[in-house]
Specification:
With 498 residues, this protein is mainly alpha-helical. It contains 19 helices and nine strands. The mean pLDDT is 94. This is Histidine ammonia-lyase.
Length: 498
């Protein structure tokens, strides 16, 4: 159970709700603050002087004062018109993320919604009802408008949702769950849609995944160094300390530990070894992986600030003022989403170079061409590297920033936008691509280590090989390779590697 108390959420709490299905509960103190703020909104609704978002139109239509008998229609019209997404439905975890993060902001007491509206969104999450949210419709400014409007539409009993993977009308799903459709009151339409919750949720999930993937990148790099008869001396702590980046030190220490006790490494440590320097893709792995770790660390600070933010426009302050602001602009999140796509592409590119080196008999120091059982008859992992190369090429394109590509909207009222949702969508694809690239390096390095027999790998890398061998057989004549890549990818995703 995750309690929404109006304060910050942790990244771990987000993942628990979004991926693991933990229930949420809105705390009593948070609901009391929500009710107090709602009193301010209702007084303003009765006032003669118009207040944006309470008694006016929205965006470029904010100059029109809306009479009281038309305000319920105003809220319905806002949500219906803004639920204008297109394209394929996005993943359930993404929708649950934006629902949870919008709930957290509503519970902060700064948006002016009613307590029953806050509780309705919590009920929707706990019932496992996921509104259908489409790929396109957010410019990352004035909030993730179309995605969040699809959620608000479901609260109204309109649109479509999924329940247990089954697509169904929202009204039917609410009825089956015992949830009454909401009739939105003043200010609530804006409050439900005016946040950066979709892009932030995707950022939190990417950070969670990248912690695991960067650890696996250290593992697959160590396995490749071992398989290619490289040296671990370059990973020594005193050498890393000469350039004191914390992420670099972590990756170097991990690679040193992973290679400890390797008979393969010991076999070429003597004076007869003519290896002076390894290629950059081996020798510089801690520098690249470490820079990626440090990027993740910086981005975590931004994510944590956002998880403590209350983003809406206008906001209701504790003294009752309703003030317009620009906090809905997604630039702080969008920049970090774009930033992460760069090291994702680079880590993957370095892994592909190591894989290619293991397959090239001119550079692999005694391994058969393409690690084939009968080179010429068999092609080994030749085309697996093609798959890696295709993904790496795609990752380079995905590293091009979305956040510099502003397009004006709303009759030039919203004349600069963040494109943060687009940055988040491409980062998700990039993280998936890195997963597959590392899986192929794992598959190839494990095969190469097996081919070094009777020499044995380090205990840690041997455990990784053994884990893979539970689903992928040892080297032999060519087999259907796609299922083996899929099995390696499933292992990478599982978290069961050292």
């Amino acid at each position: 159970m995750v309690v929404i108390d109006g304060g910050a959420l942790t990244r771990e709490q987000v993942v628990a709700v979004v991926r693991d299905g933990a229930d949420v509960e809105v705390g009593a103190d948070a609901l009391a603050e929500v009710a107090k703020t709602r009193d301010h909104v209702e007084r303003l609704a009765e006032a003669v002087t118009p207040t944006y978002g309470v008694s006016t139109g929205f965006g470029a239509l904010a100059t029109r004062h809306i009479p009281p008998d038309r305000r319920a229609a105003l809220q319905r019209s806002l949500i219906r018109s803004h639920a204008a997404g297109a394209g394929d439905p996005v993943e359930t975890e993404v929708v649950r993320g934006l629902m949870l993060l919008r709930l957290r902001t509503l519970a902060s007491g700064r948006t002016g919604v009613r307590p029953e509206t806050v509780e309705a969104l919590a009920f929707l999450l706990n019932a496992g009802i996921t509104p259908v949210v489409h790929e396109y419709g957010s410019l990352g400014c004035s909030g993730d408008l179309a995605p969040l409007s699809a959620v608000a539409l479901a609260l109204m009993g309109e649109g479509e949702v999924t329940v247990d993977g089954r697509r169904t009308p929202a009204r039917d799903a609410l009825y089956e769950a015992g949830i009454e459709p909401l009739e939105l009151a003043e200010k609530e339409g804006l409050a439900l849609v005016n946040g950066t919750d979709g892009m932030l949720g995707m950022l939190v999930l990417a950070l969670h995944d990248l912690h695991r993937l960067l650890d696996i990148a250290d593992l697959t790099a160590a396995m490749s160094v071992e398989a290619l008869l490289g040296t671990d001396r370059v990973f020594a702590a005193d050498l890393q300390a000469l350039r004191p980046h914390p992420g670099q030190a972590v990756s170097a220490a991990r690679m040193t530990a992973l290679l400890a006790g390797s008979a393969i490494m010991d076999s070429h440590r003597g004076p007869d070894c003519n290896r002076v320097q390894d290629a950059y893709s081996l020798r510089c792995a801690p520098q690249v992986h470490g820079a990626a770790r440090d990027t993740v660390s910086y981005v975590e600070t931004v994510a944590d600030r956002e998880l403590a933010a209350a983003i809406d426009n206008p906001v209701v302050l504790p003294d009752g003022r309703v003030e317009s602001n620009g906090n809905f602009h997604g630039a702080p999140v969008a920049y970090t989403l774009d930033f992460l796509a760069i090291p994702v592409a680079d880590v993957a590119g370095m892994a592909e170079r190591r894989t290619d080196r293991m397959l090239d008999a001119n550079r692999s120091h005694g391994l058969p061409p393409f690690l084939a059982a009968d080179p010429g008859v068999d092609s080994g992992h030749m085309i697996a590297q093609y798959t890696q190369a295709a993904i790496v090429s795609e990752l380079k394109r995905l590293a091009v920033p979305a956040s510099v590509d502003s397009i004006p909207s709303s009759a030039m009222q919203e004349d600069h936008v963040s494109m943060g949702w687009s940055a988040a969508r491409k980062l998700r694809r990039a993280v998936d691509g890195l997963t597959t690239v590392l899986a192929i390096e794992l598959l190839t390095a494990a095969r190469a280590l097996d081919l070094r027999a009777p020499l044995t790998p380090a205990p840690a890398t041997a455990r990784a090989v053994a884990a893979l061998r539970e689903t992928v057989p040892r080297p032999g004549p060519d087999r259907h390779l796609a299922p083996e890549i899929a099995a390696a990818e499933a292992l990478v995703r599982s978290g069961d590697l050292p």
